[in-house]
Design brief:
Order of helices and strands of chain A: HHEHHHHHEHEEHEHEHEH
Strand content of chain A: 5-15%
Largest interface: A-B, 40 and 40 residues
Shape of chain A: globular
Largest sheet of chain A: 7 strands, mixed
Mean pLDDT of chain A: 95
Radius of gyration of chain A: 20 Å
Helix content of chain A: 25-40%
Oligomer: homodimer
Number of helices of chain A: 12
Low-confidence stretches of chain A: none
Structural class of chain A: alpha/beta
């Protein structure tokens, strides 16, 4: 076997890395930006150390309608483990949830959401919590699409993640969902290392004595959304990302940060405009509202991906 | 060029990756653990995804005596930029500092330290702050060793970092110093990516309008020491590290976490016992005190590295 053959074998096997994308202006813009940044000698070449890409999760990588996956997971988990929590805390919350139409759970107030997430992602260790979430992704059917949750990641976005990784990017997920929720599937299903998942979080505790594990307390700590996404990117990655994807007003700050500064960046909203294959929503939606984002996109050089027009297929 | 030659060229050029370590029990234990974890087919083999190593910074990678580098940096910076801070805040602090013997600055109270760090690492952006720190590392001579700070990283630890990286580990620095302080030199001098530096931190702010930068406010936020090191490892890495190095009681929790749990880990304290080549201190020291660590080491299976006995040379 000679060196050329060896190199060829090391290349990704699929000749077309973005096969689920329609050829069009959007795809050409992305490919041209990334090729410019990664081709030595190109005037817009960017050294590997600076190649960072950030992706929102709900609605950008994963189906978020009609109700955020994590909300549905927490309800499932709290119903299963009801007895493990103080009745005076969990009963009123479950009563309230059962009083709502199942597709209106996004109407929970912010304090109710914090309580739901804090309890829902609590447990004796990260491993224990992620094991439960993993099980849910495998077995829970989406209420209208009728497929297991783990099959409802957008194939075009998985292709972008793989392609950017192959191009020397470190890919991060920056999400309003809890870290353990996304980390439960990020490595196996998305090829994103656990430490590259930045998200909302609960309180933890650690004792040096056995089991010497980091417990997840049933108490919410911080929501990573809007401007906080930028603060956490800076705190945990430490550099301005070169490429970014989001889908809602919660991502306006992050995408503006990617596209801003004194060197070019490429950022885009995924626009849910495909009622036939998935859902159509933007302004005024109670899940993943995209309103101010549509207003500022053109002015700030943020792209808008049409799921209907730009994506050949949504799921594998 | 054939494939075998190509593979051979891809191997690290130096045959002995830990050349600055004396052959002895300590080195043999480390090498045997890491080889066991990284050799396919070995009974203690660990998949690449789970190979995480954590290093404390001050006193473990970098000289910390007689006064923590970051404290000296902050004094240098605040004296230079005195006019940029409110006089009623900075004058009493600098007066207090000037009233102390220069080698006793570790006696600053905790609130004074917070104030010093908060102001000392503030600035209009992370880039601006790190540029100043980088300059200091290049130009500031250590008060007694008389070498620039950037030359005072322990060569044996740099070798371990490089070796573990070559063995498929992701190496993280987990430090009580501020993130920007360590990030200013981590990539260039230590080969540790900026996002792999976890440390103490100040408040930030972000506005979408130009300059669209993440400002460092002159306000301290969180000290990453003792048990908080473990919480931040879990929050930001999301798995128990396999290998860990520290040097003080601030690292007891972290090293106990590395060595604990239900799978083997390897962890060690660097013991400063070399008054001739560096400094000798442990119990009762005002910098990097190692007291409880020496008491619990044997019981918890934590190794103790003798700088005098285990290291052939300290600096390059």
């Amino acid at each position: 076997m000679n060196a050329v053959l060896l190199l060829w074998l090391a290349l990704p096997l699929r000749a077309e890395p973005l096969a689920s994308w329609n050829d069009g202006e959007l795809k050409r813009s992305l490919v041209s930006f990334v090729n410019g940044a990664t081709t030595p000698g190109s005037p817009s070449f960017v050294p590997t150390a600076e190649r960072v890409a950030v992706f929102d999760f709900d609605g950008t990588i994963s189906v978020e309608a009609p109700v955020y996956g994590q909300v549905m997971y927490c309800v499932w988990r709290l119903e299963r483990d009801k007895a493990k929590f103080p009745a005076e805390r969990i009963d009123p919350l479950l009563d309230r949830i059962h009083s709502m139409p199942p597709d209106r759970l996004n109407d929970l107030s912010y304090p109710e959401t914090e309580d739901l997430w804090g309890m829902g992602l609590s447990g004796p260790s990260g491993d224990a919590v992620r094991r439960d979430v993993r099980e849910w992704f495998k077995t829970e059917l989406h209420p209208t699409l009728k497929r297991p949750r783990e099959e409802l990641f957008y194939e075009p976005m998985r292709e972008v993640i793989n392609w950017l990784t192959a191009k020397g990017f470190r890919v991060f997920i920056v999400t309003g969902s809890m870290q353990d929720f996304v980390r439960s599937i990020s490595e196996e299903r998305l090829g994103v290392p656990r430490e590259n998942v930045i998200g909302s979080d609960g309180e933890r505790s650690f004792a040096e004595e056995p089991p010497n594990a980091v417990e997840r307390k049933p108490k919410f700590r911080e929501m990573v959304d809007k401007g906080v996404k930028v603060l956490e990117i800076d705190r945990r990655i430490g550099r301005r990302p070169l490429v970014g994807f989001g889908n809602s007003d919660g991502d306006v700050a992050m995408l503006s940060y990617v596209a801003g500064g004194d060197r070019p960046g490429w950022a885009a909203f995924v626009h849910h405009d495909d009622a036939e294959r998935e859902f159509a929503y933007d302004r005024g939606s109670d899940v993943g509202a995209l309103d101010r984002g549509l207003d500022v996109a053109a002015k700030r050089g943020l792209h808008v991906i049409s799921m209907k027009g730009d994506w050949k297929r949504l799921f594998r």
